[in-house]
Write a structure and sequence with these properties.
The complex is a heterodimer of chains A (278) and B (299). Chain A is mainly alpha-helical. The relative contact order of chain A is 0.13. Chain B has a single domain, classed as MetI-like (MetI-like fold). Classes of the chains: A mainly alpha (278), B mainly alpha (299). Chains A and B meet through helix 1, helix 4, helix 5, helix 6 and helix 7 of A and helix 1, helix 4, helix 5, helix 6 and helix 8 of B.
Chain lengths: 278, 299
Protein backbone atom coordinates (compact mmCIF):
# COMPACT_ATOMS: atom_id res chain seq x y z
CA UNK A 1 0.00 0.00 0.00
CA UNK A 2 2.71 2.38 1.09
CA UNK A 3 4.94 1.43 -1.80
CA UNK A 4 2.10 2.01 -4.23
CA UNK A 5 1.61 5.45 -2.75
CA UNK A 6 5.33 6.06 -3.02
CA UNK A 7 5.28 4.96 -6.62
CA UNK A 8 2.47 7.38 -7.41
CA UNK A 9 4.25 10.19 -5.61
CA UNK A 10 7.49 9.51 -7.49
CA UNK A 11 5.61 9.52 -10.77
CA UNK A 12 3.99 12.81 -9.90
CA UNK A 13 7.30 14.40 -8.93
CA UNK A 14 8.91 13.15 -12.12
CA UNK A 15 6.05 14.44 -14.23
CA UNK A 16 6.24 17.84 -12.55
CA UNK A 17 10.01 18.00 -13.05
CA UNK A 18 9.60 17.30 -16.76
CA UNK A 19 6.80 19.79 -16.99
CA UNK A 20 8.89 22.44 -15.26
CA UNK A 21 11.79 21.84 -17.62
CA UNK A 22 9.51 22.03 -20.64
CA UNK A 23 7.98 25.27 -19.45
CA UNK A 24 11.45 26.72 -18.93
CA UNK A 25 12.13 25.86 -22.59
CA UNK A 26 8.88 27.21 -23.97
CA UNK A 27 8.25 30.26 -21.84
CA UNK A 28 11.24 32.31 -23.09
CA UNK A 29 9.97 31.90 -26.64
CA UNK A 30 6.49 32.97 -25.61
CA UNK A 31 7.93 35.91 -23.65
CA UNK A 32 9.92 36.98 -26.67
CA UNK A 33 6.97 36.78 -29.02
CA UNK A 34 4.52 38.45 -26.64
CA UNK A 35 6.83 41.38 -26.05
CA UNK A 36 7.61 41.78 -29.73
CA UNK A 37 3.96 42.69 -30.42
CA UNK A 38 3.61 45.03 -27.42
CA UNK A 39 4.15 48.74 -27.48
CA UNK A 40 7.30 49.91 -25.76
CA UNK A 41 5.29 51.56 -22.97
CA UNK A 42 3.42 48.34 -22.20
CA UNK A 43 6.74 46.50 -22.10
CA UNK A 44 8.26 48.88 -19.59
CA UNK A 45 5.12 48.83 -17.41
CA UNK A 46 5.12 45.06 -17.13
CA UNK A 47 7.06 42.68 -19.39
CA UNK A 48 5.03 39.72 -18.15
CA UNK A 49 1.61 41.12 -19.00
CA UNK A 50 -0.48 39.21 -21.53
CA UNK A 51 -3.97 40.76 -21.13
CA UNK A 52 -5.43 44.16 -21.96
CA UNK A 53 -2.66 45.19 -24.28
CA UNK A 54 -2.65 47.23 -27.40
CA UNK A 55 -1.02 44.80 -29.77
CA UNK A 56 0.88 46.01 -32.79
CA UNK A 57 2.83 44.50 -35.65
CA UNK A 58 4.80 47.70 -36.16
CA UNK A 59 8.05 46.15 -34.98
CA UNK A 60 7.75 43.45 -37.59
CA UNK A 61 6.91 45.93 -40.31
CA UNK A 62 9.97 48.02 -39.42
CA UNK A 63 12.09 44.88 -39.35
CA UNK A 64 10.98 44.05 -42.87
CA UNK A 65 10.89 47.49 -44.48
CA UNK A 66 13.78 49.29 -42.79
CA UNK A 67 16.01 46.64 -41.30
CA UNK A 68 15.53 44.65 -44.54
CA UNK A 69 15.57 41.40 -42.63
CA UNK A 70 14.57 39.38 -45.69
CA UNK A 71 17.79 40.46 -47.43
CA UNK A 72 19.67 39.10 -44.45
CA UNK A 73 17.59 35.93 -44.67
CA UNK A 74 18.67 35.59 -48.28
CA UNK A 75 22.35 35.90 -47.31
CA UNK A 76 22.05 33.32 -44.53
CA UNK A 77 20.04 31.04 -46.75
CA UNK A 78 22.56 31.16 -49.61
CA UNK A 79 25.42 30.36 -47.25
CA UNK A 80 23.52 27.45 -45.69
CA UNK A 81 22.43 26.21 -49.11
CA UNK A 82 25.87 26.13 -50.71
CA UNK A 83 27.51 24.74 -47.57
CA UNK A 84 25.03 21.88 -47.51
CA UNK A 85 25.37 21.18 -51.24
CA UNK A 86 29.17 20.96 -50.97
CA UNK A 87 29.02 18.96 -47.73
CA UNK A 88 26.70 16.47 -49.44
CA UNK A 89 28.72 16.19 -52.65
CA UNK A 90 32.04 15.58 -50.90
CA UNK A 91 30.50 13.77 -47.94
CA UNK A 92 28.52 11.18 -49.91
CA UNK A 93 31.43 10.28 -52.17
CA UNK A 94 33.95 10.04 -49.32
CA UNK A 95 31.59 8.16 -47.02
CA UNK A 96 30.86 5.65 -49.76
CA UNK A 97 34.59 5.05 -50.07
CA UNK A 98 35.07 4.75 -46.30
CA UNK A 99 32.07 2.45 -45.89
CA UNK A 100 32.20 0.24 -48.98
CA UNK A 101 35.50 0.46 -50.85
CA UNK A 102 38.83 -1.02 -49.90
CA UNK A 103 42.04 0.88 -50.29
CA UNK A 104 45.36 1.16 -48.57
CA UNK A 105 45.44 3.13 -45.33
CA UNK A 106 41.67 3.53 -45.21
CA UNK A 107 41.30 3.24 -41.44
CA UNK A 108 44.15 5.60 -40.66
CA UNK A 109 42.87 8.22 -43.10
CA UNK A 110 39.38 7.84 -41.67
CA UNK A 111 40.66 8.46 -38.14
CA UNK A 112 42.72 11.45 -39.28
CA UNK A 113 39.74 12.97 -41.07
CA UNK A 114 37.44 12.49 -38.07
CA UNK A 115 39.99 13.85 -35.60
CA UNK A 116 40.10 17.22 -37.38
CA UNK A 117 36.68 17.70 -35.77
CA UNK A 118 38.50 18.76 -32.61
CA UNK A 119 40.39 21.66 -34.17
CA UNK A 120 38.56 24.76 -32.94
CA UNK A 121 37.67 27.25 -35.66
CA UNK A 122 39.06 30.07 -33.51
CA UNK A 123 42.52 28.50 -33.78
CA UNK A 124 42.41 28.67 -37.58
CA UNK A 125 40.46 31.84 -38.20
CA UNK A 126 43.28 34.38 -38.35
CA UNK A 127 45.49 32.54 -40.84
CA UNK A 128 42.36 31.77 -42.87
CA UNK A 129 41.27 35.40 -42.80
CA UNK A 130 44.66 36.53 -44.08
CA UNK A 131 44.68 33.76 -46.70
CA UNK A 132 41.16 34.62 -47.90
CA UNK A 133 41.93 38.32 -48.05
CA UNK A 134 44.95 37.56 -50.28
CA UNK A 135 42.77 35.67 -52.76
CA UNK A 136 39.96 38.28 -52.44
CA UNK A 137 37.42 36.00 -50.83
CA UNK A 138 36.81 38.07 -47.69
CA UNK A 139 33.32 39.59 -47.78
CA UNK A 140 32.11 36.88 -50.13
CA UNK A 141 29.80 34.03 -49.16
CA UNK A 142 32.36 31.53 -50.43
CA UNK A 143 34.80 32.27 -47.62
CA UNK A 144 32.19 31.28 -45.03
CA UNK A 145 30.98 28.35 -47.11
CA UNK A 146 34.51 26.93 -47.44
CA UNK A 147 35.15 27.23 -43.72
CA UNK A 148 31.85 25.50 -42.94
CA UNK A 149 32.69 22.68 -45.34
CA UNK A 150 36.09 22.20 -43.70
CA UNK A 151 34.60 22.41 -40.21
CA UNK A 152 31.64 20.09 -40.65
CA UNK A 153 32.85 17.55 -43.22
CA UNK A 154 34.32 15.22 -40.55
CA UNK A 155 30.99 15.05 -38.70
CA UNK A 156 29.11 14.57 -41.96
CA UNK A 157 31.44 11.72 -42.90
CA UNK A 158 31.07 10.20 -39.44
CA UNK A 159 27.28 10.21 -39.73
CA UNK A 160 27.09 9.09 -43.35
CA UNK A 161 29.73 6.39 -43.11
CA UNK A 162 27.90 4.75 -40.23
CA UNK A 163 24.65 5.08 -42.19
CA UNK A 164 26.13 3.66 -45.42
CA UNK A 165 27.71 0.69 -43.63
CA UNK A 166 24.22 -0.66 -43.15
CA UNK A 167 23.61 -0.89 -46.90
CA UNK A 168 23.96 -4.58 -47.95
CA UNK A 169 26.99 -5.29 -50.16
CA UNK A 170 24.84 -7.59 -52.31
CA UNK A 171 22.85 -4.63 -53.59
CA UNK A 172 26.00 -2.87 -54.74
CA UNK A 173 27.39 -6.03 -56.31
CA UNK A 174 24.09 -6.68 -58.10
CA UNK A 175 24.07 -3.17 -59.47
CA UNK A 176 27.65 -3.59 -60.69
CA UNK A 177 26.75 -6.89 -62.38
CA UNK A 178 24.01 -5.02 -64.19
CA UNK A 179 26.71 -2.78 -65.55
CA UNK A 180 26.34 0.13 -63.16
CA UNK A 181 29.39 2.40 -63.05
CA UNK A 182 30.71 4.29 -60.06
CA UNK A 183 28.22 7.13 -60.27
CA UNK A 184 25.32 4.77 -61.06
CA UNK A 185 26.02 2.92 -57.81
CA UNK A 186 25.97 6.20 -55.94
CA UNK A 187 22.81 7.38 -57.62
CA UNK A 188 20.73 4.21 -57.61
CA UNK A 189 21.97 2.41 -54.48
CA UNK A 190 23.85 4.60 -52.01
CA UNK A 191 21.77 7.76 -52.13
CA UNK A 192 18.33 6.08 -51.97
CA UNK A 193 19.42 3.56 -49.32
CA UNK A 194 21.39 6.07 -47.26
CA UNK A 195 18.61 8.64 -47.30
CA UNK A 196 18.07 8.89 -43.52
CA UNK A 197 21.70 9.90 -42.93
CA UNK A 198 21.60 12.34 -45.85
CA UNK A 199 18.38 14.01 -44.74
CA UNK A 200 19.74 14.26 -41.21
CA UNK A 201 22.84 16.08 -42.50
CA UNK A 202 20.75 18.52 -44.54
CA UNK A 203 18.49 19.42 -41.62
CA UNK A 204 21.14 19.45 -38.96
CA UNK A 205 23.63 21.57 -40.86
CA UNK A 206 20.93 23.93 -42.02
CA UNK A 207 20.16 24.71 -38.39
CA UNK A 208 23.83 24.89 -37.37
CA UNK A 209 24.92 27.16 -40.23
CA UNK A 210 21.81 29.33 -39.94
CA UNK A 211 22.49 29.96 -36.25
CA UNK A 212 26.27 30.40 -36.38
CA UNK A 213 27.73 33.75 -35.43
CA UNK A 214 31.52 33.53 -35.15
CA UNK A 215 32.68 32.71 -38.68
CA UNK A 216 30.41 35.12 -40.64
CA UNK A 217 31.10 37.85 -38.07
CA UNK A 218 34.82 37.71 -38.85
CA UNK A 219 34.59 37.22 -42.60
CA UNK A 220 31.53 39.22 -43.68
CA UNK A 221 31.97 42.81 -42.60
CA UNK A 222 30.28 44.69 -45.41
CA UNK A 223 26.67 45.60 -44.64
CA UNK A 224 25.09 43.94 -47.67
CA UNK A 225 26.83 40.60 -47.12
CA UNK A 226 26.03 40.08 -43.43
CA UNK A 227 24.05 37.07 -42.28
CA UNK A 228 20.95 37.47 -40.18
CA UNK A 229 22.78 36.46 -36.97
CA UNK A 230 25.62 38.93 -37.54
CA UNK A 231 23.15 41.75 -38.19
CA UNK A 232 21.10 40.84 -35.12
CA UNK A 233 24.17 40.68 -32.90
CA UNK A 234 25.03 44.20 -34.08
CA UNK A 235 21.45 45.36 -33.57
CA UNK A 236 21.37 44.00 -30.03
CA UNK A 237 24.31 46.11 -28.97
CA UNK A 238 23.21 49.25 -30.86
CA UNK A 239 19.51 49.76 -30.14
CA UNK A 240 19.64 48.79 -26.49
CA UNK A 241 16.78 51.20 -25.78
CA UNK A 242 14.28 49.35 -27.92
CA UNK A 243 13.87 45.77 -26.69
CA UNK A 244 10.49 45.15 -28.35
CA UNK A 245 12.01 45.88 -31.76
CA UNK A 246 14.92 43.54 -31.00
CA UNK A 247 12.54 40.80 -29.89
CA UNK A 248 10.75 41.07 -33.24
CA UNK A 249 14.02 40.50 -35.09
CA UNK A 250 14.92 37.55 -32.91
CA UNK A 251 11.50 35.98 -33.40
CA UNK A 252 11.76 36.32 -37.18
CA UNK A 253 15.30 34.91 -37.20
CA UNK A 254 14.23 31.91 -35.11
CA UNK A 255 11.35 30.92 -37.37
CA UNK A 256 13.23 29.06 -40.15
CA UNK A 257 15.14 26.80 -37.75
CA UNK A 258 12.05 26.13 -35.63
CA UNK A 259 9.99 25.27 -38.71
CA UNK A 260 12.64 22.85 -39.92
CA UNK A 261 12.76 21.28 -36.46
CA UNK A 262 8.98 21.04 -36.26
CA UNK A 263 8.78 19.10 -39.52
CA UNK A 264 11.89 16.95 -39.22
CA UNK A 265 12.47 16.54 -35.48
CA UNK A 266 12.16 12.79 -35.84
CA UNK A 267 15.29 12.67 -38.02
CA UNK A 268 17.22 14.99 -35.76
CA UNK A 269 16.51 13.11 -32.56
CA UNK A 270 17.29 9.82 -34.25
CA UNK A 271 20.49 11.22 -35.69
CA UNK A 272 21.78 12.64 -32.42
CA UNK A 273 21.32 9.30 -30.72
CA UNK A 274 22.84 7.50 -33.72
CA UNK A 275 26.03 9.54 -33.44
CA UNK A 276 26.26 8.69 -29.79
CA UNK A 277 26.18 4.94 -30.09
CA UNK A 278 29.07 4.89 -32.52
CA UNK B 1 43.34 -12.37 -70.78
CA UNK B 2 41.06 -12.99 -67.85
CA UNK B 3 43.85 -12.54 -65.33
CA UNK B 4 44.86 -9.26 -66.88
CA UNK B 5 41.29 -7.98 -66.67
CA UNK B 6 41.06 -8.96 -62.98
CA UNK B 7 44.13 -6.99 -62.03
CA UNK B 8 42.86 -4.04 -63.95
CA UNK B 9 39.52 -4.07 -62.11
CA UNK B 10 41.25 -4.17 -58.77
CA UNK B 11 43.44 -1.28 -59.76
CA UNK B 12 40.39 0.77 -60.72
CA UNK B 13 38.87 -0.08 -57.33
CA UNK B 14 41.94 1.14 -55.46
CA UNK B 15 42.07 4.38 -57.34
CA UNK B 16 38.31 4.79 -56.92
CA UNK B 17 38.70 4.73 -53.15
CA UNK B 18 41.52 7.27 -53.16
CA UNK B 19 39.81 9.48 -55.72
CA UNK B 20 36.60 9.47 -53.70
CA UNK B 21 38.26 10.89 -50.62
CA UNK B 22 40.64 13.17 -52.46
CA UNK B 23 38.37 16.27 -52.47
CA UNK B 24 37.85 15.95 -48.72
CA UNK B 25 41.57 15.57 -48.10
CA UNK B 26 42.32 18.67 -50.18
CA UNK B 27 39.68 20.74 -48.34
CA UNK B 28 40.92 19.60 -44.96
CA UNK B 29 44.50 20.45 -45.88
CA UNK B 30 43.55 23.96 -47.00
CA UNK B 31 40.91 24.84 -44.41
CA UNK B 32 42.20 22.99 -41.35
CA UNK B 33 45.76 21.71 -41.66
CA UNK B 34 47.43 24.67 -43.35
CA UNK B 35 45.96 27.31 -40.95
CA UNK B 36 46.93 25.27 -37.90
CA UNK B 37 50.51 24.90 -39.12
CA UNK B 38 50.49 28.60 -39.95
CA UNK B 39 49.19 29.48 -36.47
CA UNK B 40 51.88 27.35 -34.82
CA UNK B 41 54.62 28.95 -36.90
CA UNK B 42 53.29 32.52 -36.52
CA UNK B 43 52.95 32.09 -32.76
CA UNK B 44 56.74 32.44 -32.60
CA UNK B 45 56.69 35.71 -34.54
CA UNK B 46 55.35 39.24 -34.15
CA UNK B 47 53.09 38.77 -37.19
CA UNK B 48 50.55 41.50 -37.92
CA UNK B 49 48.80 39.80 -40.81
CA UNK B 50 50.77 41.77 -43.36
CA UNK B 51 54.50 41.83 -43.93
CA UNK B 52 55.83 42.10 -40.40
CA UNK B 53 56.70 38.63 -39.22
CA UNK B 54 60.01 38.50 -37.31
CA UNK B 55 61.02 35.48 -35.31
CA UNK B 56 60.75 36.36 -31.63
CA UNK B 57 61.00 32.91 -30.08
CA UNK B 58 58.82 32.28 -27.06
CA UNK B 59 58.09 35.94 -26.41
CA UNK B 60 54.36 35.64 -27.18
CA UNK B 61 54.02 32.70 -24.84
CA UNK B 62 55.95 34.40 -22.06
CA UNK B 63 53.75 37.44 -22.60
CA UNK B 64 50.60 35.34 -22.33
CA UNK B 65 51.65 33.59 -19.14
CA UNK B 66 53.06 36.61 -17.32
CA UNK B 67 51.53 39.73 -18.74
CA UNK B 68 47.99 39.04 -19.93
CA UNK B 69 44.62 38.06 -18.48
CA UNK B 70 45.38 34.45 -19.48
CA UNK B 71 44.94 33.07 -15.96
CA UNK B 72 41.58 34.80 -15.67
CA UNK B 73 40.55 33.25 -18.98
CA UNK B 74 41.66 29.85 -17.76
CA UNK B 75 39.76 30.28 -14.50
CA UNK B 76 36.64 31.20 -16.46
CA UNK B 77 36.96 28.15 -18.67
CA UNK B 78 37.34 25.94 -15.60
CA UNK B 79 34.27 27.51 -14.00
CA UNK B 80 32.27 27.04 -17.18
CA UNK B 81 33.43 23.42 -17.42
CA UNK B 82 31.54 22.72 -14.19
CA UNK B 83 28.43 22.87 -16.37
CA UNK B 84 29.44 19.54 -17.92
CA UNK B 85 28.74 17.34 -14.85
CA UNK B 86 25.61 19.42 -14.15
CA UNK B 87 24.26 18.93 -17.66
CA UNK B 88 25.17 15.29 -17.60
CA UNK B 89 23.41 14.57 -14.31
CA UNK B 90 20.23 16.35 -15.32
CA UNK B 91 20.49 14.82 -18.79
CA UNK B 92 20.71 11.28 -17.40
CA UNK B 93 17.82 12.00 -15.04
CA UNK B 94 15.66 13.21 -17.93
CA UNK B 95 16.75 10.40 -20.26
CA UNK B 96 15.85 7.68 -17.77
CA UNK B 97 12.42 9.25 -17.31
CA UNK B 98 11.87 9.47 -21.06
CA UNK B 99 13.09 5.88 -21.46
CA UNK B 100 10.36 4.67 -19.14
CA UNK B 101 7.86 6.35 -21.45
CA UNK B 102 6.02 8.48 -18.95
CA UNK B 103 2.81 10.06 -20.14
CA UNK B 104 3.50 12.46 -22.98
CA UNK B 105 7.17 11.44 -23.37
CA UNK B 106 7.23 12.18 -27.09
CA UNK B 107 6.05 15.71 -26.45
CA UNK B 108 8.61 16.19 -23.68
CA UNK B 109 11.39 14.80 -25.86
CA UNK B 110 10.58 17.32 -28.58
CA UNK B 111 10.40 20.27 -26.20
CA UNK B 112 13.50 19.34 -24.23
CA UNK B 113 15.68 19.50 -27.32
CA UNK B 114 14.19 22.84 -28.39
CA UNK B 115 16.90 25.20 -26.98
CA UNK B 116 19.42 23.55 -29.29
CA UNK B 117 17.41 24.78 -32.26
CA UNK B 118 17.29 28.39 -31.13
CA UNK B 119 20.27 30.53 -32.12
CA UNK B 120 22.81 31.22 -29.38
CA UNK B 121 22.42 34.92 -30.23
CA UNK B 122 18.73 34.75 -29.32
CA UNK B 123 19.26 32.74 -26.16
CA UNK B 124 22.12 34.95 -25.06
CA UNK B 125 20.04 38.08 -25.58
CA UNK B 126 17.12 36.60 -23.61
CA UNK B 127 19.47 35.84 -20.74
CA UNK B 128 20.95 39.32 -20.88
CA UNK B 129 17.50 40.87 -20.75
CA UNK B 130 16.35 38.45 -18.03
CA UNK B 131 19.28 39.25 -15.74
CA UNK B 132 19.53 42.97 -16.43
CA UNK B 133 19.07 45.38 -13.54
CA UNK B 134 15.36 45.98 -14.21
CA UNK B 135 14.86 42.69 -16.01
CA UNK B 136 12.30 39.96 -15.34
CA UNK B 137 14.41 38.09 -12.78
CA UNK B 138 14.88 41.15 -10.62
CA UNK B 139 11.22 42.14 -11.07
CA UNK B 140 10.19 38.76 -9.69
CA UNK B 141 12.69 39.03 -6.84
CA UNK B 142 11.42 42.48 -5.89
CA UNK B 143 7.86 41.28 -6.24
CA UNK B 144 8.59 38.59 -3.68
CA UNK B 145 10.17 41.15 -1.37
CA UNK B 146 13.65 39.78 -1.92
CA UNK B 147 15.12 43.14 -2.85
CA UNK B 148 18.57 42.23 -1.66
CA UNK B 149 18.79 39.55 -4.37
CA UNK B 150 17.81 42.01 -7.09
CA UNK B 151 21.40 42.92 -7.90
CA UNK B 152 23.23 43.78 -11.06
CA UNK B 153 23.82 40.17 -12.06
CA UNK B 154 26.00 40.84 -15.07
CA UNK B 155 28.07 43.55 -13.37
CA UNK B 156 29.87 41.26 -10.89
CA UNK B 157 32.34 38.61 -11.89
CA UNK B 158 30.88 35.89 -9.70
CA UNK B 159 27.24 36.39 -10.58
CA UNK B 160 27.99 37.00 -14.26
CA UNK B 161 29.85 33.68 -14.41
CA UNK B 162 26.93 32.15 -12.52
CA UNK B 163 24.50 33.38 -15.17
CA UNK B 164 26.72 31.90 -17.90
CA UNK B 165 26.90 28.57 -16.06
CA UNK B 166 23.13 28.57 -15.68
CA UNK B 167 22.62 29.45 -19.33
CA UNK B 168 24.99 26.81 -20.72
CA UNK B 169 23.57 24.12 -18.45
CA UNK B 170 20.00 24.96 -19.40
CA UNK B 171 20.94 25.07 -23.07
CA UNK B 172 22.65 21.67 -23.06
CA UNK B 173 20.26 19.53 -21.02
CA UNK B 174 18.29 18.57 -24.12
CA UNK B 175 21.35 17.49 -26.08
CA UNK B 176 22.63 15.40 -23.15
CA UNK B 177 19.23 13.78 -22.65
CA UNK B 178 18.85 12.81 -26.31
CA UNK B 179 22.42 11.48 -26.53
CA UNK B 180 21.98 9.42 -23.36
CA UNK B 181 18.61 8.20 -24.60
CA UNK B 182 20.34 7.03 -27.79
CA UNK B 183 22.90 5.13 -25.72
CA UNK B 184 20.11 3.57 -23.69
CA UNK B 185 18.62 1.95 -26.77
CA UNK B 186 21.40 -0.61 -26.32
CA UNK B 187 19.89 -1.73 -23.01
CA UNK B 188 17.66 -4.71 -23.55
CA UNK B 189 14.19 -4.01 -22.14
CA UNK B 190 14.31 -7.38 -20.34
CA UNK B 191 17.19 -6.27 -18.15
CA UNK B 192 15.36 -3.11 -17.28
CA UNK B 193 12.11 -4.92 -16.53
CA UNK B 194 13.94 -7.54 -14.47
CA UNK B 195 15.50 -4.82 -12.35
CA UNK B 196 12.07 -3.29 -11.90
CA UNK B 197 10.54 -6.64 -10.92
CA UNK B 198 13.28 -7.17 -8.35
CA UNK B 199 12.11 -3.98 -6.72
CA UNK B 200 14.96 -1.72 -7.79
CA UNK B 201 13.80 1.85 -7.39
CA UNK B 202 14.46 4.71 -9.77
CA UNK B 203 17.92 5.54 -8.38
CA UNK B 204 19.04 1.94 -8.20
CA UNK B 205 17.93 1.34 -11.78
CA UNK B 206 19.83 4.44 -12.87
CA UNK B 207 23.07 3.67 -11.04
CA UNK B 208 23.27 -0.11 -11.30
CA UNK B 209 21.60 -0.78 -14.63
CA UNK B 210 21.75 2.27 -16.86
CA UNK B 211 25.06 3.98 -16.08
CA UNK B 212 27.33 0.92 -16.37
CA UNK B 213 25.80 -0.07 -19.70
CA UNK B 214 26.04 3.39 -21.26
CA UNK B 215 29.54 4.26 -20.01
CA UNK B 216 30.77 4.66 -23.61
CA UNK B 217 27.96 7.07 -24.38
CA UNK B 218 28.74 9.05 -21.24
CA UNK B 219 32.38 9.24 -22.31
CA UNK B 220 31.31 10.57 -25.70
CA UNK B 221 28.95 13.10 -24.11
CA UNK B 222 31.62 14.31 -21.67
CA UNK B 223 34.31 14.78 -24.34
CA UNK B 224 31.95 16.49 -26.75
CA UNK B 225 30.49 18.87 -24.20
CA UNK B 226 33.89 19.73 -22.72
CA UNK B 227 35.27 20.55 -26.16
CA UNK B 228 32.06 22.43 -26.94
CA UNK B 229 32.37 24.48 -23.74
CA UNK B 230 35.95 25.42 -24.61
CA UNK B 231 35.35 26.32 -28.24
CA UNK B 232 31.76 27.01 -29.15
CA UNK B 233 30.27 29.41 -26.64
CA UNK B 234 31.47 32.57 -28.35
CA UNK B 235 27.95 33.77 -29.23
CA UNK B 236 26.70 33.28 -25.67
CA UNK B 237 29.53 35.28 -24.14
CA UNK B 238 29.28 37.92 -26.85
CA UNK B 239 25.58 38.54 -26.24
CA UNK B 240 25.34 38.01 -22.46
CA UNK B 241 28.41 39.72 -21.02
CA UNK B 242 30.62 40.64 -24.00
CA UNK B 243 33.41 39.13 -21.94
CA UNK B 244 33.15 41.88 -19.35
CA UNK B 245 33.54 43.45 -16.93
CA UNK B 246 37.08 43.71 -18.37
CA UNK B 247 38.18 40.18 -19.22
CA UNK B 248 36.36 38.80 -16.18
CA UNK B 249 34.01 36.54 -18.14
CA UNK B 250 36.08 36.00 -21.29
CA UNK B 251 37.48 32.69 -22.40
CA UNK B 252 40.53 31.95 -24.53
CA UNK B 253 38.57 31.80 -27.75
CA UNK B 254 36.86 35.09 -26.90
CA UNK B 255 40.23 36.78 -26.42
CA UNK B 256 41.39 35.53 -29.83
CA UNK B 257 38.36 37.35 -31.22
CA UNK B 258 39.19 40.62 -29.39
CA UNK B 259 42.81 40.42 -30.57
CA UNK B 260 41.56 40.11 -34.12
CA UNK B 261 40.07 43.60 -33.93
CA UNK B 262 42.71 45.18 -31.72
CA UNK B 263 44.78 48.04 -33.10
CA UNK B 264 48.23 46.96 -34.26
CA UNK B 265 46.85 43.54 -35.22
CA UNK B 266 48.73 41.35 -32.69
CA UNK B 267 48.13 38.24 -34.79
CA UNK B 268 51.29 36.52 -33.60
CA UNK B 269 50.05 36.84 -30.03
CA UNK B 270 46.58 35.61 -31.05
CA UNK B 271 48.19 32.65 -32.82
CA UNK B 272 49.99 31.71 -29.62
CA UNK B 273 46.61 31.80 -27.82
CA UNK B 274 45.18 29.56 -30.55
CA UNK B 275 48.02 27.07 -30.08
CA UNK B 276 47.43 26.98 -26.32
CA UNK B 277 43.70 26.41 -26.89
CA UNK B 278 44.48 23.57 -29.27
CA UNK B 279 46.87 21.95 -26.78
CA UNK B 280 44.27 22.16 -24.00
CA UNK B 281 41.63 20.51 -26.17
CA UNK B 282 43.92 17.75 -27.39
CA UNK B 283 45.07 16.96 -23.85
CA UNK B 284 41.49 16.85 -22.56
CA UNK B 285 40.56 14.37 -25.27
CA UNK B 286 43.60 12.20 -24.63
CA UNK B 287 43.30 12.25 -20.82
CA UNK B 288 39.59 11.56 -21.00
CA UNK B 289 40.10 8.55 -23.28
CA UNK B 290 42.87 7.24 -20.98
CA UNK B 291 40.66 7.53 -17.91
CA UNK B 292 37.72 5.74 -19.45
CA UNK B 293 39.95 2.99 -20.81
CA UNK B 294 41.37 2.49 -17.30
CA UNK B 295 37.90 2.51 -15.83
CA UNK B 296 36.67 -0.13 -18.24
CA UNK B 297 39.70 -2.30 -17.39
CA UNK B 298 38.66 -2.28 -13.74
CA UNK B 299 35.15 -3.41 -14.48
Amino acid sequence: MLSKFNQKLTNLVIFLALLGLSISNLYPLFYMFMNSIKSRTDYYVNPFSVWNLKLTWDNYLTMISQFKIFNLFKNSFLISFFSIILLLCFGIVASYAFAKLNFKGKNIIYLLVISTMFIPVQATIIPLYVFFSRIHLVNTFWSVVFIYVGMFIPEVILLMTSGFRGIPDELIEAAKLDGAGYFDVLRYVIVPMGRPAIILCIIFYFIVTWNDLFTPMILLQSMDKRTVMVALAALLSRYSGDPTFQFAGLVLASIPAILVYAFFQHYIIKGISLGATK
Amino acid sequence: MRGYKGINIRRIKISQGILSILPVIIILIIIRFYPIMMAIYRSFTNWNGLFRSDWIGLENYVDIFTNSPFWILLRNSLVLLTTVPLQLMIGIFVAVILYEEVKGWRFFRTIIYLPQIIAAVTIGYLFRVAFSLDGPVNLVMRGMGLDFIAIEWLGNTATALGVLVFCLTWFSIGWQAIVILGGMSKISPDVFEAAKMDGANYWQRTFYVVIPIISRTIEYAVIMSMVWTLTSIFAFIYTITAGGPGYETSTIDYMIYTKFYQAGAPYGFASALAVILLIIILSITVVELRITNKASEWE
